[in-house]
Prior knowledge:
By secondary structure, the chain is mainly α.
Amino acid sequence: MIKGYVKNIFILAILIVAGVLLQVVGLLDAEKMLLVAREYADQWWLVLVLILLQTVLFTFALAGSLFLWVAAPLYSPLMSTFILAAGATLGGVGAYYFSLNMTDEWIHKVENSHAYKLLHQQDNFFTLFALRVFPAFPHSLVNYSSGVLQVKLSHFIPAAFLGVGAKSYVYSNVIYNAASTSSFEQLLDIKTFGPLVLLSALTLTAVYLKYRFTRNAS
């Protein structure tokens, strides 16, 4: 009991320190990050740096998604999509394995999430894909729930890359082609996120219908 409590405090301390340090150096400020990144946009290694930073943030359930506002204005939609999908996928794998070392208290919180309950019933590629592609759905819940449940990585990895990729391409297109003053408004337009919601809903519906059919058949 005491050992688990100490471990919990230790992990929490690491996350707090990491969050504070990232905030101090400006890595949690998309505007500051974009200003810095613009100076090195012609350097090949910037792509690797952006992917690495996302990997670290997603691993520890921090704001990795803010890099949408860094990558999309600098690169073409296709390149931006690759950067965001790669970073989110690698960070997702990191969070997957990190969750295996979580304490019982943290695991209990994850088990109360909607992502956990859904994945507990349907551990497959399509469920993971639907959660990834749904706008504003917290990736950290999917990552940590998948780790706690030890879902198949053969489902987890491609669903993360394709799901985040599909969503990132839609958003990257809007940001890349729109003026910075109107980007955020267009991202909230139903015409932008509506197809993503529909795709997610149709995928989950297909999963549910298959589940019902299999259950009735047995």
